[in-house]
Protein backbone atom coordinates (compact mmCIF):
# COMPACT_ATOMS: atom_id res chain seq x y z
CA UNK A 1 0.00 0.00 0.00
CA UNK A 2 1.15 3.51 -0.74
CA UNK A 3 -0.11 5.03 2.51
CA UNK A 4 2.75 6.57 4.49
CA UNK A 5 3.46 6.65 8.21
CA UNK A 6 5.72 9.44 9.45
CA UNK A 7 8.54 8.82 11.92
CA UNK A 8 7.34 11.80 13.97
CA UNK A 9 4.03 10.05 14.54
CA UNK A 10 5.75 6.90 15.77
CA UNK A 11 8.13 8.88 17.95
CA UNK A 12 5.21 10.72 19.54
CA UNK A 13 3.82 7.29 20.48
CA UNK A 14 7.13 6.26 22.07
CA UNK A 15 8.81 4.43 19.20
CA UNK A 16 12.26 5.86 18.28
CA UNK A 17 12.27 4.65 14.69
CA UNK A 18 9.83 3.98 11.89
CA UNK A 19 8.15 5.54 8.93
CA UNK A 20 10.11 3.41 6.47
CA UNK A 21 8.48 2.71 3.10
CA UNK A 22 7.90 -0.93 4.11
CA UNK A 23 6.01 -2.01 7.22
CA UNK A 24 8.37 -5.00 7.49
CA UNK A 25 11.26 -2.62 8.24
CA UNK A 26 9.19 -0.80 10.86
CA UNK A 27 8.42 -4.19 12.42
CA UNK A 28 12.09 -5.21 12.39
CA UNK A 29 12.86 -1.96 14.21
CA UNK A 30 10.53 -2.75 17.11
CA UNK A 31 13.33 -4.72 18.76
CA UNK A 32 16.55 -3.07 19.93
CA UNK A 33 19.14 -5.83 19.65
CA UNK A 34 22.19 -3.86 20.79
CA UNK A 35 20.76 -3.31 24.27
CA UNK A 36 21.25 -5.78 27.06
CA UNK A 37 18.76 -7.10 27.73
CA UNK A 38 17.26 -6.82 24.26
CA UNK A 39 14.41 -4.30 24.32
CA UNK A 40 11.09 -5.27 22.74
CA UNK A 41 9.30 -2.02 21.90
CA UNK A 42 5.97 -3.82 21.37
CA UNK A 43 6.43 -6.23 24.26
CA UNK A 44 3.40 -4.98 26.19
CA UNK A 45 -0.21 -5.14 25.06
CA UNK A 46 -0.51 -1.34 25.21
CA UNK A 47 2.63 -0.76 23.15
CA UNK A 48 1.60 -3.37 20.58
CA UNK A 49 -1.88 -1.85 20.28
CA UNK A 50 -0.37 1.60 19.74
CA UNK A 51 2.06 0.36 17.09
CA UNK A 52 -0.52 -1.69 15.18
CA UNK A 53 -2.97 1.20 15.45
CA UNK A 54 -0.54 3.50 13.65
CA UNK A 55 0.38 0.89 11.02
CA UNK A 56 -3.24 -0.18 10.42
CA UNK A 57 -3.80 2.27 7.57
CA UNK A 58 -0.97 0.59 5.62
CA UNK A 59 -2.34 -2.91 6.14
CA UNK A 60 -5.50 -4.87 5.29
CA UNK A 61 -8.42 -4.49 7.65
CA UNK A 62 -8.73 -7.13 10.31
CA UNK A 63 -7.66 -8.04 13.81
CA UNK A 64 -4.20 -7.20 15.06
CA UNK A 65 -1.86 -10.18 14.83
CA UNK A 66 -1.19 -12.52 17.73
CA UNK A 67 1.86 -11.46 19.77
CA UNK A 68 3.61 -14.83 19.43
CA UNK A 69 3.12 -14.93 15.65
CA UNK A 70 4.34 -11.34 15.41
CA UNK A 71 7.52 -12.10 17.35
CA UNK A 72 8.16 -15.18 15.23
CA UNK A 73 7.89 -13.27 11.96
CA UNK A 74 9.91 -10.36 13.34
CA UNK A 75 12.70 -12.70 14.42
CA UNK A 76 12.71 -14.33 10.98
CA UNK A 77 12.90 -11.10 9.00
CA UNK A 78 15.47 -9.68 11.39
CA UNK A 79 17.63 -12.77 10.90
CA UNK A 80 17.30 -12.52 7.12
CA UNK A 81 18.14 -8.79 7.06
CA UNK A 82 21.03 -9.16 9.50
CA UNK A 83 22.42 -12.11 7.51
CA UNK A 84 22.42 -9.99 4.37
CA UNK A 85 24.12 -7.05 6.09
CA UNK A 86 26.71 -9.32 7.71
CA UNK A 87 27.43 -11.23 4.48
CA UNK A 88 26.54 -14.62 5.89
CA UNK A 89 24.02 -17.32 4.92
CA UNK A 90 20.55 -16.85 6.34
CA UNK A 91 19.16 -19.46 8.72
CA UNK A 92 16.87 -21.70 6.60
CA UNK A 93 14.34 -21.77 9.46
CA UNK A 94 13.93 -18.00 9.11
CA UNK A 95 13.18 -18.39 5.40
CA UNK A 96 10.57 -21.04 6.22
CA UNK A 97 8.93 -18.79 8.81
CA UNK A 98 8.73 -15.89 6.36
CA UNK A 99 7.24 -18.13 3.66
CA UNK A 100 4.77 -19.64 6.13
CA UNK A 101 3.53 -16.22 7.24
CA UNK A 102 3.22 -15.01 3.64
CA UNK A 103 1.18 -18.05 2.60
CA UNK A 104 -0.99 -18.25 5.73
CA UNK A 105 -3.41 -15.69 4.28
CA UNK A 106 -3.26 -16.21 0.50
CA UNK A 107 -4.47 -13.51 -1.86
CA UNK A 108 -6.92 -13.74 -4.73
CA UNK A 109 -8.19 -11.20 -7.26
CA UNK A 110 -11.81 -10.10 -7.01
CA UNK A 111 -14.20 -7.97 -8.97
CA UNK A 112 -16.24 -5.38 -7.09
CA UNK A 113 -19.11 -3.29 -8.37
CA UNK A 114 -18.63 0.44 -7.80
CA UNK A 115 -20.54 3.54 -8.92
CA UNK A 116 -17.95 3.88 -11.69
CA UNK A 117 -18.33 0.27 -12.82
CA UNK A 118 -16.37 -2.91 -12.19
CA UNK A 119 -13.01 -2.61 -10.44
CA UNK A 120 -10.36 -5.16 -9.56
CA UNK A 121 -9.38 -5.60 -5.95
CA UNK A 122 -7.64 -8.29 -3.94
CA UNK A 123 -8.71 -10.32 -0.96
CA UNK A 124 -6.59 -11.93 1.73
CA UNK A 125 -8.09 -15.25 2.83
CA UNK A 126 -7.98 -15.74 6.58
CA UNK A 127 -10.53 -18.56 6.77
CA UNK A 128 -7.90 -21.03 7.94
CA UNK A 129 -6.38 -18.93 10.70
CA UNK A 130 -3.85 -16.76 8.90
CA UNK A 131 -3.49 -13.07 9.67
CA UNK A 132 -3.75 -10.68 6.74
CA UNK A 133 -1.45 -8.05 8.27
CA UNK A 134 1.35 -10.55 8.92
CA UNK A 135 0.89 -12.03 5.44
CA UNK A 136 1.34 -8.60 3.84
CA UNK A 137 4.40 -7.86 5.99
CA UNK A 138 5.93 -11.25 5.14
CA UNK A 139 5.22 -10.64 1.44
CA UNK A 140 7.10 -7.33 1.73
CA UNK A 141 10.05 -9.24 3.18
CA UNK A 142 9.93 -11.74 0.30
CA UNK A 143 9.85 -8.94 -2.27
CA UNK A 144 12.72 -7.03 -0.66
CA UNK A 145 14.96 -10.02 -0.02
CA UNK A 146 14.31 -11.30 -3.53
CA UNK A 147 15.24 -7.99 -5.17
CA UNK A 148 19.05 -7.56 -5.24
CA UNK A 149 18.86 -3.98 -6.51
CA UNK A 150 16.54 -2.82 -3.75
CA UNK A 151 18.26 -4.94 -1.11
CA UNK A 152 21.46 -2.96 -1.75
CA UNK A 153 19.69 0.01 -0.14
CA UNK A 154 19.23 -1.82 3.17
CA UNK A 155 21.40 -0.31 5.91
CA UNK A 156 21.98 -0.56 9.62
CA UNK A 157 22.33 2.70 11.52
CA UNK A 158 25.95 3.91 11.63
CA UNK A 159 25.65 4.38 15.40
CA UNK A 160 27.32 1.23 16.82
CA UNK A 161 24.96 1.37 19.78
CA UNK A 162 21.89 1.28 17.52
CA UNK A 163 20.41 -1.73 15.74
CA UNK A 164 17.81 0.05 13.63
CA UNK A 165 17.49 -0.79 9.92
CA UNK A 166 16.36 1.38 7.03
CA UNK A 167 16.30 1.70 3.26
CA UNK A 168 18.72 4.40 2.20
CA UNK A 169 17.05 6.65 -0.32
CA UNK A 170 20.43 8.25 -0.98
CA UNK A 171 24.09 7.45 -0.27
CA UNK A 172 24.36 10.19 2.32
CA UNK A 173 21.92 8.63 4.76
CA UNK A 174 23.85 6.96 7.58
CA UNK A 175 21.54 7.29 10.57
CA UNK A 176 18.21 5.68 11.38
CA UNK A 177 16.84 9.09 12.36
CA UNK A 178 18.44 12.49 12.13
CA UNK A 179 16.91 13.70 15.37
CA UNK A 180 18.24 10.82 17.50
CA UNK A 181 21.34 9.02 16.22
CA UNK A 182 22.24 11.73 13.73
CA UNK A 183 21.96 14.37 16.43
CA UNK A 184 24.04 12.29 18.86
CA UNK A 185 26.77 11.99 16.22
CA UNK A 186 26.75 15.77 15.65
CA UNK A 187 26.97 16.44 19.39
CA UNK A 188 29.85 13.95 19.74
CA UNK A 189 31.74 15.59 16.85
CA UNK A 190 31.18 19.02 18.43
CA UNK A 191 32.59 17.80 21.76
CA UNK A 192 35.61 16.30 20.02
CA UNK A 193 36.34 19.54 18.19
CA UNK A 194 35.88 21.54 21.39
CA UNK A 195 38.25 19.28 23.32
CA UNK A 196 40.80 19.29 20.49
CA UNK A 197 40.89 23.09 20.52
CA UNK A 198 41.05 23.46 24.30
CA UNK A 199 44.42 24.62 25.68
CA UNK A 200 46.16 22.21 28.05
CA UNK A 201 45.38 22.70 31.74
CA UNK A 202 47.66 22.48 34.76
What do you see in this structure?
It is a single chain. This protein is α+β, with helices and mostly antiparallel strands and 202 residues long. The protein has a single domain, classed as Jann2411-like domain (Jann2411-like fold), CATH 1.10.3300.10. The chain has helices at residues 7-12, 23-28, 45-55, 67-86, 92-103, 132-145, 148-151, 178-196; strands spanning 31-32, 39-40, 107-114, 117-124, 154-156, 165-167. A hairpin with a 6-residue loop joins strand 1 and strand 2 (39-40). The radius of gyration is 20 Å and the shape is globular. The mean pLDDT is 89.
Short account of what is shown:
This protein has 202 residues and is an alpha+beta fold.
**Biggest β-sheet, characterized?**
2 strands, antiparallel
Overall domain count: 1
Q: Tell me the Rg in angstroms.
A: 20 Å
Shape summary? globular
CATH level 1 name: Mainly Alpha
End-to-end span in angstroms? 63 Å
Number of helices: 8
Task: Work out the helicity level.
Answer: 40-55%
Name of the CATH superfamily: Jann2411-like domain
Properties at a glance:
202 residues, alpha+beta, Jann2411-like fold, two-stranded antiparallel sheet, two-stranded antiparallel ribbon, 6 strands, globular
Topology:
Layout: H1 7-12, H2 23-28, E1 31-32, E2 39-40, H3 45-55, H4 67-86, H5 92-103, E3 107-114, E4 117-124, H6 132-145, H7 148-151, E5 154-156, E6 165-167, H8 178-196
Antiparallel strand pairs: 1-2, 3-4, 5-6
Amino acid sequence: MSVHVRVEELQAAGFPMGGEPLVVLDLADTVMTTRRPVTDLIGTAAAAAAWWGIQARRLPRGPAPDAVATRRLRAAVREAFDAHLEGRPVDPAAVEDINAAASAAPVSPRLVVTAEGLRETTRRHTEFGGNAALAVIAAEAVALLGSPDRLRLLRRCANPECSMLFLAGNRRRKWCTGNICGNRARVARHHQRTRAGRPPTG
